[in-house]
Amino acid sequence: MKSIGKFLAATSLAGSLLAASSAFSAETIKIGVAGPMTGANATFGEQVWTGASAYVNEVNAAGGIDGKQIELVKGDDACEPKQAVAVANRFVDQDKVKAVVGHFCSSSTIPASEIYADAGILTVTPSSTNPIVTDRDLDTMFRTCGRDDQQAVVAGGFILDTLKLDKVALIHDKDTYGQGLVDALKKTLAERGVEPVLYEGLTRGERDFNALVTKIKSSGATAVYFGGLIPEAGPLIRQIHEQGLAVKFVSGDALAQTEIVSAAGGPQFLKDVYYSSAADPKQDPDTAEAQEALKKANIAPDNYTLFGYASAQTIVAALKGSNNGETEAQVDWLRNNAVKTAVGNLAWNEKGDVKDFKFVFYSFDDKGAPVAAN
Amino acid sequence: MDFYILAQQLVNGITLGSIYGLIAVGYTMVYGVIRMINFAHGDVYMVSAYVAAITLAVLHSFGVDSVPFAIISVLVVTCFITGVYGWTIERVAYRPLRGSTKLAPLISAIGISLMLQSYVQVAQGARDQGVPVLVSGALRLGTDKDFAQITYMQLVILVASFVAMAILTYLISYTTLGRQCRATQQNRHISAVLGVNTDRIISSVFVIGAATAAVGGVLVTFNYGSFNFFIGFVMGIKAFTAAVLGGIGSLPGAILGGLVLGLTEALFAGYVSTDYKDVFAFALLIVILFFRPYGLLGRPEIQKV
Amino acid sequence: MDNAKIPAKLLKEAVFTFVLSLIVFGPISGLVLTGFTVENKLARPLIIASVVTIGRVLFTLFLETSLGRRLIARMAGTAGSGVTVESGNERFPYAAVAIAFAVGLAFPLMADEYWLGVAILALIYVLLGLGLNIVVGLAGLLDLGFVAFYAVGAYLLALGAQYLGLGFWGALALAPLIAAFCGMVLAFPVLRMHGDYLAIVTLGFGEIIRLVLNNWLDFTGGPNGAAVPAPTFLGLEFTRTARQGGTPFHEFFGISYSADYKFWFIYLVLFLVVAAVIYVVNRLKSMPIGRLWEALREDEIACRSLGVNHVATKLSAFMLGASTGGVAGVFFAVHQGFVNPTSFTFFESALILAIVVLGGLGSTLGVVMAALVLTILPEVLRDFAEYRVLVFGILMVVMMVWRPRGLVRIKRPAFFPSSAPAAVPALAAAEAAQ
Asked: What HEC string does chain B produce?
């Protein structure tokens, strides 16, 4: 009975919110949020949406931009290029958005950003780390995430200098993010004169990596670097432990999610697991404000939630900084100013890449909570 | 050293293969009776993983600590609920299409597959879910550094799939239901003339197929610990491949196909390349079908003129 | 049915449906996993089960009305019979075709960029559907890896531009040849196999192509994909500034730049290609080769006994289907400006197959309609947000159950000896008797 009451309360609340938003709709600023809301990557799309809407709610509560409320529009591309183009055209023609947070996958961002560039719409991707995204000299394209090469340099240093291991097995998931990261790391290691003992790609969507784990064991690796996402990282970590391998497991910022604990089967498997991520709020005062706000709204600070939040912050800052002006003014402002975001103090270069993106390494405590590792 | 690595890869392959086999049974039985590829089968398996985890969590909240009791009750509950799913899907999406073209149920199966995935995503969220470790520890062979092992959970998988297959074989070979199944498989119309309620038989086949997938789902969930709403897709394609490899329509064929596929994947991944293991598996399938067009154990349909 | 029994039957049905939906929806939507525990949301399955039960009762009541009874009678009347034969009195609908053609050509003037993009995608799927229709609908070979040829066409343009300087028109001319060659390579091992074994082999072939595209990083760019140059028309480029050494379209004509021109151009070329393919397929159907495909689909043994070269016949179907898929791939690549392997998964093959089956196996008009429905539907459903795929799946099942033989029932042309017009009523009578 109690839950029915809750349900009714929720519906009436949603109804009143809907009414409120339609009352404002005449003078809102529309911002599109594009990502995979369905399909294999839906969990990340949800996070980006949660992060972006958390920040926009704050801005709206504080009076919006020049008294205008911001309205977010959701665009589901399922990480398929063909749907990404449809979403982009819809944002431009039907929803008439002012700026876009997205897309999530590089393979969606690349074709969609051509359309945004033609229409002159500011685009900030929270997660597309592929170099091509910004290397095409599109004026309107920015990202709040690091490039693959930036993260790999940090990871190489961490494995070789902090962990002092040089027998590295490189595993990737044959996808843009994972493979890009691992290939960049391979290059970094080669510059230091270290050849990986193993370089393999696993198949996304599978759960059984025992054969690969046995292969890692026979390669004699002391460290495993995995470029990939939680659904594959979880079982891989667990199977490495179950087969009794004494290796350190290092991975990228995709692991910065609370669900890694249940995906790996419990905190006992997260010993010797490290990942790089945006700076810790305790060390980086720039991010403290955002982390605080998320905590207040009772939202888990998952990786892509933070990046979605940061992308929304970037867009709002550009709109405010240019006095809600033309796209060129927004772009100019972003190139010349830094923004305090949920992932650190960000400043951009000519291409739209973040200058000196800061990565920090984390490991897990007994309960599976992240703690700084350096 | 090399011996233990090989032994370990064999263990890996056989465990994976018996799971493929369990899921493949559902494809093969349905195909045998109504000559239809049930593309929603992989997603029925996915649903069973969720049901298993939910049941386990509910048992935990009632303070059930005994692991064997937990495993068995999760198996029973999951098989039942997944069986109901199988029945409902057949009733809603396939029975109205009986007597239509052969491809019509294939398309509604794709629709059902999309529906199940999306329903679970909406209801349970897209995030990865997990279950805690129930059985840990392993049998080890060799020295402290060089060893091959089989975990107790892998043993449970082998035993459970063996038992499930034994029950199924008994069901098909020695019971009235099984005889009616086989008769329906041979000729649905003549069986109906002889008094077999073919609609009921087809429904039972869907229930049995779904329940077998549920056994696979429970075992996979307990062994690998994590799942999401999308796991049905890859598993579905793999199990379908296994069913065809063994000869679709043949129960022992499904098991053999599963084992061959699992071993191929493990050995190719272990000794050649993980990147190309799926390419190799499909290429092997094409080669086998080239020499044995009806799969390893499939019987050719003799066409008389 | 006896009217007095209705309430009892309804009650039984309602209770059964309610219990069944509780079991089905109960655990998944009632208990939500959070970490290793569950959150209780048991109200949800109760609501869903009530809705389903009410729907079921209303549906049963509807079937008891006179309209419902007529509906059942109609379904029962048409479900069994297979093919209808033309009576010989049909006129080719010149006016309708001419209007459709004119509307299609004028469409870019009416639509905005979004709907133009959707229309381009829909036409690409029409092309894919037409190609697969030759293989599945006409020749009866179940192909689950059709996406492979689509990928071949798309990557031909992307990689051809990168390594050989191939342009849009060159790729458009080469794609049918190369895709047909791939079709031939696949068809040789496949011809030995029957029915569903063929399905899995083609599925395997499709997956192999995708995996190789994904894994062969140095050549294809792997998951990072490959960029595709914008199309050119008589050396005029459709980009803001010339990137391929020509003149931009808008500068040549002295008009201001707009991205729309590129899409208009792609749409018009694609529309003409689709029209040409429809024409060719319709001619093929009444040519000897088309008749052989259909005859082989109906009874292979009889055909072979009559001396039909079944290898050549099947091979020609595969190659023609594949070449159409290859052309569609070129258009897809040029429209996207970028290709990567995620566009060529097994799900695409399934979608194309759904177009063919939903359209009515072998029917050209049906394929066109189904392709439009299945590509435009997901866009229309965007307002459902995360329920979009759920609704799409439900509609797919409903459409299939509603029209098990496809949207358009095919009519076979009948041939009558011109000297004996009396045969026409006799045939029509025979058909009615069926």
From this structure: CHHHHHHHHHHHHHHHHHHHHHHHHHHHHHHHHHCCCCCCHHHHHHHHHHHHHHHHHHHHHCCCCCHHHHHHHHHHHHHHHHHHHHHHHHHHHHHHHCCCCCCHHHHHHHHHHHHHHHHHHHHHCCCCEECCCCCCCEEEEECCCCEEEEEHHHHHHHHHHHHHHHHHHHHHHHCHHHHHHHHHHHCHHHHHHCCCCHHHHHHHHHHHHHHHHHHHHHHHHHHHCEECCCHHHHHHHHHHHHHHHHCCCCHHHHHHHHHHHHHHHHHHHHHCCCCCHHHHHHHHHHHHHHHCCCCCCCCCCCCCC
Write out pLDDT tens, residues B54-68. Answer: 999 888 888 887 888
CATH 1.10.3470 residue ranges of chain C are: 102-386
A349/A289 Cα distance (integer angstroms): 25
Question: Phi/psi zone of residue B249: left (φ > 0), alpha (ψ -120 to 50 degrees), beta?
Answer: left
Chain C residue numbers with beta carbons less than 8 Å from the beta carbon of A183 are 217
User: Chain B residues with CB inside 8 Å of C23's CB?
Assistant: 81, 84
What CATH number has the domain spanning C102-386? 1.10.3470
Chain B: touching chains (3 or more CB pairs < 8 Å): A, C
* Tens-digit pLDDT profile for residues C1-21: 456 677 788 888 888 888 988
pLDDT of chain A along its 374 residues, tens only?
344 444 444 444 444 444 444 444 457 889 999 999 888 888 889 889 999 999 999 899 988 888 888 999 999 988 888 889 889 988 988 888 989 998 898 888 988 998 898 888 999 999 888 888 888 888 889 988 888 778 888 888 899 888 888 889 999 988 888 888 898 899 989 998 889 999 999 888 888 899 999 999 888 899 999 998 888 999 999 999 888 888 999 998 888 888 888 888 888 888 889 998 876 655 677 777 788 888 888 888 888 888 899 999 999 999 888 887 788 888 888 888 888 888 888 888 888 888 877 788 888 888 888 888 76
Chain C contacts of A119, Cβ < 8 Å? 259
C144-191 pLDDT tens trace: 889 999 999 999 999 999 898 888 899 999 999 999 999 998 888 777
What are the structural domains, with CATH classification, of chain A? 2-146+284-346 (3.40.50.2300), 148-280+359-372 (3.40.50.2300)
Flag whether residue B230 sits within 8 Å of chain A, measured between CB atoms.
Answer: yes
Q: Which of A358, A364, A363, A366 is nearest to A283 (CA)?
A: A358
Helix (H, G, I), strand (E, B) or coil at A69: coil
- Closest residue in C to A87 (Cα–Cα): C114
What is the CB neighbour count within 10 angstroms for residue B177? 15
Tell me how close the Cα of A48 comes to any Cα of chain B, in angstroms. 13
What tokens were used for B270?
């272990």
Q: How far apart are CA B2 and CA B274, in angstroms?
A: 19
**Interface predicted TM-score (ipTM) over 0.85:** yes
Nearest to C189 among B35, B286, B303 (CB): B286
How many residues comprise chain C?
Answer: 434
pLDDT in tens, C373-402: 888 888 888 877 778 888 888 988 988 888
Nearest CA to CA, how far is C179 from chain B (Å)?
Answer: 20
Distance CA C200, CA C331 (A): 27
CA separation for the pair A341, A20 (Å, rounded): 28
How far is A245 from chain C, CA to nearest CA, in Å? 26
Architecture of the CATH domain B2-291: Orthogonal Bundle (1.10)
Using the Cβ of C385 and the Cβ atoms of chain B, whether some distance falls under 8 Å is answered with: no
Q: Give residue A53's identity as a one-letter amino acid code.
A: S
Domain range summary for chain B, segments of one domain joined by +: 2-291
| Integer CA distances (angstroms), A363 to A240, A251, A267, in order | 17, 10, 11
